[in-house]
Design goal:
By secondary structure, the chain is α+β, with helices and mostly antiparallel strands. The protein has 5 helices and 10 strands. The strands form 2 sheets. Strands 1-2-10-9-4-5-6-3 form an 8-stranded mixed beta sheet. Residues about 1-10, about 10-15 and about 30-60 have low confidence and may be disordered.
């Protein structure tokens, strides 16, 4: 129903109804505030997404074995651990097929150790894929490299889930994936400076350290790489680790 002003004439038009009206100073200030708030909201969403990624495994500042320091080196593409030290043993664990694995069996090879879990939604698949790509690029030298993963999820990483994970990432036969009970894994995590804690808000996720450790042919823990490592970095450092 329309409304008329006294005397039968239509009511005066509202300023908002006039399409040719120039914006008032108040309107201009409101539009400016909207343009300012929208980019801020986008930034907040992006930062929130990055925080969620860190919560599932990616962290830029992580503890190193025996509180070692890492420095950039002119020789290695990975960060150099100082001082270099013998890699902590893994002999208390078994692979997903129930066989014992000892790092000393790989003397003479360049070994890369990382810590994963099979249900990880982001960081672990990235690490696995990049390590596979690095080894594949080595061609005939691939046999001089050994990949090792240690579980950070004693409950979720079963023989079946690990077998599927390795197959999905084309790492069957390339990677030794070690599993165990919480009591068996906890001393290994501690020796390597690895954190592992089930996420309180999403119990299916594990907050954990996400580094790759390079071990020389003599068994010394020598280099580290971030979770977003590039395969050429690994390939560049393999001959240097073999010679160390």
């Amino acid at each position: 129903m329309s409304t008329k002003a006294p005397g039968g004439s239509p009511p005066p038009a509202s300023p908002e109804d006039d399409p040719d009206r120039s914006p008032s100073p108040e309107d201009q200030r409101a539009a400016g505030r909207l343009r300012l708030y929208l980019p801020i909201a986008v930034i907040v969403l992006l930062v929130g997404g990055a925080a969620a990624l860190v919560a599932t495994g990616s962290s830029s500042k992580q503890q190193l074995p025996d509180n070692a320091k890492s420095v950039h080196s002119g020789r290695f593409d990975g960060s150099l651990l100082q001082p270099a030290r013998q890699a902590p043993p893994l002999s208390s664990l078994r692979n997903y097929q129930g066989r014992p694995v000892n790092l000393t069996n790989y003397r003479g090879k360049a070994v890369f150790v990382t810590f994963l879990y099979t249900h990880c939604p982001d960081v672990c698949p990235l690490i696995a894929s990049q390590l596979h790509n690095a080894v594949s690029r080595l061609g005939s030298r691939a046999g001089e490299v050994q990949l090792v993963a240690v579980s950070v999820d004693p409950r979720g990483d079963t023989s079946a889930s690990v077998g599927r994970f390795l197959k999905e990432h084309q790492l069957t036969g390339q990677m030794q994936y070690l599993i165990g009970s919480a009591a068996e894994l906890a001393p290994v995590w501690q020796a390597w400076g690895v954190g592992s804690q089930r996420d309180a808000g999403n119990p299916e996720f594990i907050n954990h350290s996400a580094l790759v450790y390079g071990i020389s042919a003599s068994g010394k823990l020598t280099t580290i790489y971030p979770s977003n490592l590039n395969p050429p970095e690994i390939d560049h450092d393999v001959p240097l680790l073999l010679a160390s």
